[in-house]
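User: Here's a chain of 127 residues. Predict its fold as tokens.
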Amino acid sequence: QAQPVESGGGLVQAGGSLRLSCAASGRTFSSYAMGWFRQAPGKEREFVATISLSAGITYYGNSVQGRFMISRDSAKNMVYLQMNDLKPEDTAVYYCARLKVISTASDRENPYKYDYWGQGTQVTVSS
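Assistant: Prediction complete.
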């Protein structure tokens, strides 16, 4: 079964930056919007960002707006998450997933509207 593969996580100090990558090859992903979520221990999965098929439309969660940037390179079947000014509260496992279909704008933040989840990559931000 097709599955995205995330990479780029690690340990970084507060104020630092990381760039996450999501390899999402094949027709399973190339015709869909893609998104990033994160989940910290004991917390629900939280929406981070989503990007449209054409990469022309991006949307961010309130907690990362202005610090994170999502992008995609369709020719390489890659989706990226540039994370700047990282904070300890950004510590989580970050997941890449395919957005199936949305009926309302709020669907973009709903993890149940996504499928084909990757295994995740751990991001740890020290204070």
